[in-house]
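User: Here's a chain of 186 residues. Predict its fold as tokens.
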Amino acid sequence: MSKSKLLKKIGKSSLIIILLFLVAFNFDPFLQVVAGVTRAVVTKQSMEPTLKEGDLVILKSTPSIEIKENDIIVFDRYITGTPSNPGYEINLQTPWIHRVYDIIEYNGTLFFKTKGDNNISIDPGLVPSNGIVGKLIFYIPMIGILYLNPIFRTINLLIIVCLVAAYIFLELKGEKKEINQTPNST
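Assistant: Prediction complete.
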């Protein structure tokens, strides 16, 4: 294989990888279907120094039975009161990301006490199993800031369109070159 063909293959492969990365991190349904994960952005300082505001966190949907003390989870609701005497269920407008401080089992259902690493006290309620969005599997420092900026979405979509156009152009250019190099069979 010639050096120029190898470089073209590397270029096309790089375009595809970048494109898949951008699509994956822009469309949560794609992430959930392909990799079984979702993403969130840390928007508060409650988990410092472990996680900082603007970090992009990657979460895996995890059965509550597999969540252990000290795991970091994202949740979107909690209950006031106790498992035996629950009060209200509070639905959070913005999911919280905190560390599991304690696990309580009541009548076969798990509830989680949580606390932010930077907070003095434990969170005010208990997180029911169905309130857990996911468990932290890894994070990327400060990348989440881009997701908080609405202009980023537009720019990212433009980049995706340009990469797709560049890939199509390279493919068409390669086919045209092959057609021109094919000898006539007369």
